[in-house]
C-alpha cells in the first residue's frame, strides 16, 4: 500500500486485515506529514510491517513495481490495495483459505463495491470506517484490485490488473468466480452469482474526506487531475448510486474493536 496523510485510518486497516489472515504489510509512505510513524512503529517492531519511504511524486505504479521486484520472493501471494479498500470475504474467514482455491491461477481480481458518504459531512475519529459507512452501490464495479500468485512470472504490472506470462502467452486475472477478466468486463453484472469476496472501496467516506482526498491532496499516480467541477460531478453520480446498504463486513466488528482496544492499551498503558 502507498499512503499519504492517512494515519487516522492505518490502525483499523492493519488490524482488520490481520484478523482475516494477512501476514505481512509492505507500506510505502508518500510524503506524509501526519503522525503515521506513531501508528506504525509497534507493527514494525513486531515484524508485521516493512516501511519504505517513497518520496517520489505521482509514482504509485512505480511503487507497486518496486514492491514486486524486491519482495515477491518473501511471499506466495502479494496484493496492492489502498487505505480506503478492505478485503471483504463472503464465503471464507481467512485469506489463505480463500486464495488456496486459486492456487492454479496467476492472479485473482476482487471487484470493488463502492461505498459513499452515508450522509456524513464530517469525519469523526470515534467511529471506524467499516462501522460508519454502509451505503453502497447495489452491484460490484467492473474494476478492482488483483492479488498475484508468485509461483508465476508477470510481465505487466498494474495494481488494478496484472498480466502473467505462461510459456510466452499472456494470462489475465480471474475473478472470484474463476472467469478470466478482460479489460474490466464486468462479469459480476453479467453473471448472477454470489461472490466469494470483493473489496469494500470507501471511495469518498465523508464529504470532508472527499474534499481533502480529491480537491486538495490529489492523485497518487498522475500529475493531471480532474477539475473541481468534474470531481463534484463524480461525487453526485457516485452518491446517487448508493441505493443499498451492505453490513457484511461488520461481522468482524466486535473482534476488530477488541483488538484495537488491546493495541491502544499497549501503546498508551
Question: Layout of helices and strands, plus pairs?
Answer:
Elements: E1 2-3, H1 7-19, E2 25-29, H2 36-45, E3 49-53, H3 60-71, E4 77-79, E5 85-89, H4 95-100, E6 107-115, H5 129-132, E7 135-136, E8 144-149, E9 153-156, E10 163-166, E11 169-171, E12 174-175, H6 187-190, E13 197-202, H7 207-217, H8 228-240, E14 244-245, H9 253-267
Parallel strand pairs: 1-2, 2-3, 6-12, 6-13
Antiparallel strand pairs: 4-8, 5-13, 6-8, 7-14, 9-10, 10-11
Helix pairs in contact: 1-2, 1-9
Structure in words:
With 269 residues, the protein is α/β, with parallel strands linked by helices. The protein has one domain (2-267). It has helices spanning 7-19, 36-45, 60-71, 95-100, 129-132, 187-190, 207-217, 228-240, 253-267; strands spanning 2-3, 25-29, 49-53, 77-79, 85-89, 107-115, 135-136, 144-149, 153-156, 163-166, 169-171, 174-175, 197-202, 244-245. Strands 4, 5, 6, 8, 12 and 13 form a 6-stranded mixed β-sheet that branches. It has a 3-stranded parallel β-sheet with strand order 1-2-3. Helix 1 packs parallel to helix 2 and helix 1 crosses helix 9 (253-267). The longest helix is centred in the C-terminal third of the chain and has 15 residues, at 253-267. The radius of gyration is 18 Å and the shape is globular.
Short description, anyone?
With 269 residues, the protein is an alpha/beta fold. The chain has helices at residues 7-19, 36-45, 60-71, 95-100, 129-132, 187-190, 207-217, 228-240, 253-267, and strands at 2-3, 25-29, 49-53, 77-79, 85-89, 107-115, 135-136, 144-149, 153-156, 163-166, 169-171, 174-175, 197-202, 244-245.
Amino acid at each position: 500500500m502507498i499512503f499519504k496523510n492517512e494515519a487516522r485510518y492505518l490502525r483499523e486497516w492493519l488490524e482488520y486485515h490481520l484478523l482475516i489472515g494477512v501476514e505481512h504489510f509492505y507500506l510505502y509512505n508518500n510524503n506524509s506529514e501526519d503522525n503515521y510513524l506513531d501508528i506504525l512503529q509497534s507493527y514494525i517492531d513486531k515484524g508485521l510491517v516493512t516501511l519504505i519511504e517513497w518520496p517520489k511524486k505521482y509514482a504509485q505504479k512505480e511503487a507497486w513495481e518496486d514492491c514486486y521486484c524486491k519482495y515477491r520472493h518473501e511471499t506466495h501471494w502479494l496484493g496492492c490495495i489502498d487505505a480506503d479498500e478492505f478485503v471483504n470475504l463472503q464465503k471464507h474467514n481467512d485469506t489463505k483459505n480463500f486464495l488456496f482455491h486459486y492456487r492454479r491461477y496467476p492472479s485473482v481480481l476482487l471487484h470493488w463495491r463502492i461505498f459513499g458518504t452515508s450522509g456524513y459531512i464530517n469525519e469523526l475519529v470515534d467511529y471506524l470506517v467499516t462501522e460508519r459507512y454502509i451505503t453502497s452501490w447495489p452491484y460490484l464495479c467492473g474494476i478492482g484490485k488483483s492479488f498475484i500468485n508468485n509461483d508465476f512470472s508477470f510481465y505487466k504490472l498494474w495494481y488494478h490488473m496484472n498480466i502473467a506470462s505462461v510459456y510466452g502467452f499472456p494470462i489475465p486475472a480471474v475473478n472470484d468466480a474463476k472467469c478470466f477478466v478482460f479489460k474490466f468486463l464486468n462479469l459480476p453484472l453479467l453473471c448472477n452469482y454470489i461472490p466469494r469476496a470483493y473489496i469494500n472501496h470507501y471511495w469518498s467516506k465523508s464529504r470532508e474526506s472527499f474534499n481533502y482526498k480529491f480537491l486538495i491532496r490529489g492523485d497518487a499516480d498522475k500529475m493531471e487531475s480532474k477539475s473541481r467541477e468534474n470531481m463534484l460531478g463524480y461525487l453526485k453520480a457516485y452518491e446517487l448510486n448508493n441505493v443499498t446498504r451492505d453490513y457484511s463486513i461488520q461481522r468482524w466488528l466486535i473482534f476488530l474493536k477488541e483488538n484495537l482496544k488491546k493495541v491502544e492499551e499497549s501503546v498508551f498503558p
